[in-house]
Amino acid sequence: MKILMLSWEYPPRIVGGISRVVHDLSHKLVKDGHEVTVVTYRDGDVPYYEDDDGVRVNRVDNFMIASNNFIDWILQLNFNMVARTGEIIAKEGKFDVIHAHDWLVAYAAKTLKTSYNIPMVSTIHATEAGRNSGIRTDEQRYINDTEWMLTYESSEVIVNSNYMKSELQRLFGLPFEKINVIPNGVNLNNFNNVYRDYDFRRRFAMDNEKIILFMGRLVYEKGIQNLISAMPKILSRYHDVKLVIAGKGGMIDELRNQVNYLGINEKVYFAGYLNSADVKKMYKCSDISVFPSTYEPFGIVAIEAMLSGTPVVVSDIGGLNEIVEHGVNGMKSYAGNPNSLADSILTLLFDHKLCDEVVKNAKVKVKAEYNWNKITSDTHFVYEKAIVETMAERQAKQIAQEKVSKENKKIKENSKSNTISNLLDFNKKRQALA
Fold first, then answer.
1. Phi and psi for 166 in degrees, rounded to 5?
2. Which of 42-46, 224-228, 378-382, 415-419 is the least confident region?
3. Does residue 397 register a pLDDT over 70?
4. CB-count exposure of residue 202 (10 Å: 0-12, 13-18, 19+)
5. Peptide bond between residue 12 and the one before it cis (omega within 30 degrees of 0)
């Protein structure tokens, strides 16, 4: 099967979680014998074309003309995606299916679908309404409407959790059977031969300090502000801890000010962005990983932490709520509640037996449910559904057109026959009068 992946991010460009999903899914599809072409944005000095272990990666620039805003920038990117894909199709032939990732590539996907009559599948990784707890501005409304359009134009829609399935049904009125729940996955070999590096660990905390790790973007919906608010209660009962915040984002200054205000500067370390190798080391060096999101469609970082052998604490929200069973493979806390968050963290800090148990159960769950073999197989099945549905729609359309054509032909023949009959009657009457 020839598959076209459209995504605005692909490694080394990583903005959020889409990049890793597209990368891992594409590579597994190639290993399964499919041809995968990714068309994405070119960021920095990376090549325009790259054979990434069998995945054909085509990157495009944006317009030289400066855009007025982010929406215009995205539209310009979509124009160039369409142009590049058109060149690929002209040279190598049509694709069997288009897989569009989020609204950022919606216009390119719709244009290619209608221009080349290719079945389309879309994955909605998150929604604008979910990220902002509603729609309040014209830009948010535009993005929300574009998300609806993408799901409407798609033969099949993929989401990564039952929470997201319910959200799409509520927001866009999509039919239940059109939405396929396929979780994101993780490479099960990610932490092979990765061990606790004490020299690396000492860059962030002293040997006697337990590391509480937050890994992710520093944006409001990730809930890092609530974790910082939980630290005074944690420190009052377990002093030898250090909160390490790994990631970057727009809230960095606000979070630093919050730490200063609480007077816990010596117990919070802003590690900034970590490369993939350091991320693995960081998980292995940590004692508890915390993901206190207020909105989280899935939570791939929680899966990574569970695979690494680090006990996790998550909010009881979205996909995280489906991944973690409280006290079995991790701990939960009430979303947006620092006091509840502190209680769950303290439980793990004091109960080593519980930590060992949840780590063991977490690894079993990740290996059984979030491996790329199963995820890729389920995704391929969705592709086949989309192709069959598109063929059925074409056949139905063709039958309808043929039926209309026959009816029009019959009407013409009847009209012609009636005209001849009327002329004969007219001639008979004229002869009788003569």
1. -65, -40
2. 415-419
3. no
4. exposed
5. yes
